[in-house]
Amino acid sequence: MYSIGLKKLSEIICAVALIAFSSSASAQGAKTVKNPSEPTPEEKPDIAQTGNSAAAQPGNDQTARDPESADWKQIVQKEREDFDGDTDADQPAAREEYFRRGRTVMGESAAALLRRGFLQKQAMIEQIKEVKGLIARGIAGNIAAPHLMAAAAFSNLNWISMGPAPIVSDPTNRQSYGYVTGRVTAIAVDQSDLSGNTVYVGGAYGGVWKSQNAAAADATTVAWTQLLDAQVTEAIGAISVQPGGTGVVLVGTGEPNGSGDSYYGQGVLRSVDNGTTWINITSADNGVHPFIGGGFSKFAWSTTSTNFVVAAFANVGIANGTTPNVCANPNPNACIGLYYSTNAGVTWTSANVTDAGTTIQPGSVRDVIYNSFFNKFFAFIRFHGIYFSPDGINWLRLPDANQPGSAMTLLNCPSNPSNGSTCPAARGALSYRRDTGAMYVVYVNGNLSDDSSGTVGSTAGNSGIYVATVDPSNGGTWTQLGESGFVACSDGSGSGCGYVQSFYNMYIQVLPDTADSTKTDIYLGFVNLFKCIATSTDPYCKNTNDWFNLTHVYGCNPTGSLSFVHPDQHAMDFSTTNPSIMYFGDDGGVNRTLNGPGLSAANSVCGQHNPFDNLNQNIGSMSELVDFSQDPTNSGIVLAGLQDNGSPLLNPNITTPNNTVWQGANLGDGGFNAIDPNNPNVYYTSNTKVSIQHCNLGLNCNVNNFSYLVTNLGGDVAPFYMPFILDPQNTSQILAGTCRLWRVAVSGAATGSPTVVSTPLSLNLSTLSATICSGSNPDIQAIGAGGSVTPNGSQVIYV
Q1: Which residues contact 433 (CB under 8 A, 6 or more apart)?
Q2: Order of strands across the sheet with 784-790?
Q3: Cα(546)–Cα(386) distance, rounded to whole angstroms?
């Protein structure tokens, strides 16, 4: 629930319009369901969902995440199995399935429509200013259009931010993440500030926030300012500050992490005054290659030509935002790739990328760096491998012998692959030591079925962690690092060890050890944050348990108590003048340490504590709301569903540290929810699939007293977040949607032991038969009810 001005309201109206016009497979538009007088017997229970009806985006970049592929179905099914019994386990692949549906708007680019709506809104704002001037002169009624008169009156309303910011992840201490605020996808330290205090962070859809005292000794005093509230999008993939204190900041919009709720971008936002004002660059090559619809993974600046910068451009999680009419020649992914600017980001040009003289069709560029020791750029390109460039304009593929691992060959990764099934380069991340040039890479195989186990790197030559101490574009070769303590990290199989969710969370960062510069500190961000200290006697982390788990999110009791850091790592940066100061971004927000050496093996044991500080207390909301409900008797009480940050509650009686602090009421992936208007002490929350919980204690509801109310609806497979409402004519009745509409009669809701009877009110709306929902059927996305009252509730129901 962001603070909502006229811009935000227009975005909400736009979002409603998108929902109203979206369609999924054979289900189109709203349907009216009559209330049957007789219940229909439930069908046989439980079928595992194995796919969805949305087609994969064409082109080589999406093959390994094709929702209809056997590998993708296997990974989603594995997540479901791992989820059972652990309500806080994350499920990004299954969440992606849910968000894939309904994201195409009448066959047009949703990204382009969003930009068109933004420009219309900007024009309307200027018109409203003129109308308000006419109103002040007393003549508006004679010449102003009625809709502008209404909008002018509406624009005088005052909107107050309700957050959620910050959120106490769980006041019962069942999990200990401290304050959370939402997914942080990018971090950039302004290196011209030698104190390490000036930091920019970007959210998945939370905009860019800036702090100028981020290294303050007291973390509770760190202040943040939102920089993008007036811009076309707040979906962020990359942030970079031009070296030298020029004031230039580049923000790459669109989040390229592999999740279905990764939103498409609107190009590059460029500031010349440290983020005060912005200009939106929407394309490269004078409009031939639009940026609208994609996402930026990284920027890399040359240190020899200080205005020269390279951008890594990629598909967003669902790859459905790309403008098709321009990018479809010769292939739908023509717009993704490498781009360079010679004027610090004012204009952009597509780079020339070749394999031994053959111009390639690049896949998503997952990372790009400038190695200032070797004076060359390096990039990791999906389903191709590692490329280098001395000038950032012309790029060559590293020879097979100089690629990491034995499988990343030109034979397995051809110049223009029809799919990525043979190439192990699904996703990779790069880093290097600035004082020696030693390069590090971690990458994962395109065989995503291995990803759910966390052991994808165990197959020699196919993926893993590598180092090259000599320039790989000049004969240097790669040595694979050990994985002991990383793949097996004591958090449990599939629960945060190794490469789990590497399509969603992955980075590598290296720097000289802050206590002994002859050593190298290597950080890996996946579900957990890992560290290895490479030494002269053990340069490749080959000893037993060389990797230590800095966060142990699921390995200590309570969850997260080792470091109080949320799982799913996405970003890291540090002060080059004082490398002990580091900043980390994850699904819960932003953390830091002022004591790099304190992040140690000795402190990475349950019962000890790694010295992380939580910086979410004073930052604004970066959450992505699924749903919220308001207490009808007290407008200050609000219950919300915040995806991976659970179902928090705004309690007006709690005002510390501020009056917008929210308390985690229920855990897991927070979805739809409700507060009973006839008994405001009765709360309903939901997690994923068929999973509705109940609590009758009002403001005292927490994870320990929510109980499962609905866990099965005739064996139907439900959408990732199953929509439900309380029937407005009878609030003891729940209306829930799978591919069928269900009425759930609740008896004893005011007690701690309610009972339910579930009755289907419709056929399978896809097959128009009584068959159960298998997961391939289009799901109900929204429910409305009203009309005359019947003995069971509303007479007319819309889905």
Answers
A1: 373, 510, 511, 512, 520
A2: 32-34, 793-798, 784-790
A3: 27
The whole-angstrom separation of Cα 12 and Cα 147 is: 18
Most distant CA pair in the chain, distance: 85
Residue 513 CB neighbour total at 10 angstroms:
17
| Helices and strands of the chain, counted as H and E runs | 7, 49
The answer to whether the beta carbons of residues 628 and 642 sit under 8 Å apart is no
Cα 91 off chain centre by: 12
The Cα–Cα gap between 584 and 514 comes to 17
- What is the arithmetic mean of pLDDT over 97-113? 62
- What distance in Å separates the CA atoms of residue 669 and residue 124, rounded to the nearest whole number? 38
Phi-psi map region of 163: left, alpha, beta (phi>0 left; psi -120 to 50 alpha)? left
Find out whether the peptide bond into 652 is cis, omega within 30 degrees of 0.
no
Q: Could you give the CA distance from residue 422 to residue 408 in angstroms, rounded to a whole number?
A: 9
Q: What is the mean pLDDT of residues 191-204?
A: 97
Which residue has better confidence, 665 or 453?
A: 665
Over residues 543-552, the pLDDT tens digits come to 999 999 999 9
**Cis peptide, bond prior to residue 166, ω within 30 of zero:** yes
Question: What backbone phi and psi angles, to 5 degrees, belong to 614?
Answer: -90, 125
Tokens of 788: 């005359």
Q: C-alpha dihedral over 615, 176, 550, 450, to 10 degrees?
A: -110
Whether the CB-CB separation of 706 and 665 falls below 8 Å is answered with yes
Beta-bridged to residue 689, according to DSSP, are 721
398 Cα distance to chain centroid: 31
Q: Kindly give the pairing relationship between strand 225-226 and strand 208-211.
A: antiparallel
Which residue type, as a one-letter code, is found at position 186?
A: A
CA distance 764 to 768: 5
Residues in the chain: 799
Number of C-beta neighbours around residue 770 at 10 A: 14
Residues 6+ away with beta carbon under 8 Å from 273: 247
Amino acid code (one letter) for 512: P
Residues 6 or more apart whose CB falls under 8 angstroms from that of 126 comprise: none
Residue 90, helix vs strand vs coil: coil
> Rounded CA gap, 39 and 329, in Å?
54
| Structure token digits, residue 574 | 């540090």
Q: Judging by DSSP bridges, how do beta strands 352-355 and 394-397 pair with one another?
A: parallel
The rounded distance, in Å, linking the Cα atoms of 368 and 351 is 13
Radius of gyration (C-alpha) of the chain in whole angstroms = 26
Strand order of the β-sheet with 167-168 is 179-180, 167-168, 662-666, 647-650, 638-641, 627-630
Among 684, 687, 651, which Cα is nearest to 671's?
Answer: 687
pTM of the predicted model as reported, rounded to 2 decimal places: 0.85
Buried b (16+ CB within 10 A) or exposed e, 530-542: bbbbbeeeeeebe
> What are the start-end ranges of the H helices in 84-159?
92-100, 110-137, 140-143, 146-154
β-pairing, 733-737 vs 724-726, is antiparallel
**Residue 492, Cβ neighbours under 10 Å: how many?**
15
Given a cut of 60, whether residue 13 has pLDDT beyond it is no
